[in-house]
Amino acid sequence: MSNEFTINEDGTVLDRETGLMWKRCAEGQYCNEMGCIGNARGYTWEEAMLLTSPFAGYEDWRLPTIKELKLIITREVSKPYMNRLIFPDTGKTNFWSSSDSPYYSFGAFYLDFNRGYPYYDDKSHLYSVRMIRGQQAIDGIPFCFRNPSTKVSEKPLSLARQGGGKEALVNESERGRG
């Protein structure tokens, strides 16, 4: 899993497979050379959806979808099921996603990193938040655990139209090939 990420000195981490950038620490914490300092703050879903603040020179931070949150689960470690070198001091906590629940009108999905699965709950509950930036997950990204044997290219990726009008992430050097 750690080969798929680039840890930046500004408190962010880049997922080279998807092009998504994550904050290493949960909201309420700050990052230094020792890891994430402080306690993650709890937010209602509505509060979490309104969070926007500049960080690391970017202003387009947002709440991840449940599919995006599932991309950072790993079963290669003990609970919580997250690589703690990439995302230090996460704790055994729940993180809100931006995904509404289709089953419960007052609910939204969250990811329980202690169990490693998504659930939905009432939007008034207080859960942690880990912000993300970049394009929202493409439909082609599966709603399942990331395969740890996936090979990752060192080349930059971009979104390109494929046959049938579908979009896919491709290496910049392969863009336009037919």
Characterization of this structure:
By secondary structure, this protein is mainly beta. The protein has a single domain, classed as Mannose-Binding Protein A, Chain A (Roll), CATH 3.10.100. It has two helices and eleven strands. The strands form four sheets. The chain has a four-stranded antiparallel β-sheet, with no helix packed on it. Strands 6-7-8 form a three-stranded antiparallel β-sheet. Strand 7 and strand 8 form a beta hairpin. The longest helix is centred in the N-terminal third of the chain and has 6 residues, at 45-50. It starts with a strand and ends in a 7-residue tail after the last strand.
In terms of topology, how is this protein built?
Elements: E1 5-7, E2 12-15, E3 21-23, E4 30-32, E5 35-37, H1 45-50, H2 66-70, E6 94-100, E7 107-112, E8 117-122, E9 132-133, E10 157-161, E11 167-171
Antiparallel strand pairs: 1-2, 2-3, 3-9, 4-5, 6-7, 7-8, 10-11
Structural class: mainly beta
Termini separation comes to 31 Å
Number of strands: 11
Rg result:
16 Å
CATH topology: Mannose-Binding Protein A, Chain A
Q: With helices defined by DSSP (H or I, 4 residues minimum), what is the helix count? A: 2
CATH secondary-structure class: Alpha Beta
- Number of structurally distinct domains: 1
Strand residue percentage: 25-35%
Biggest pleated sheet: 4 strands, antiparallel
Q: Which percent bin holds the helix content?
A: under 10%
Order of helices and strands: EEEEEHHEEEEEE
Q: Mean pLDDT, nearest integer?
A: 78
| Uncertain regions spanning at least 5 consecutive residues | 138-175
Query: Major sheet: order of its strands?
Result: 1-2-3-9
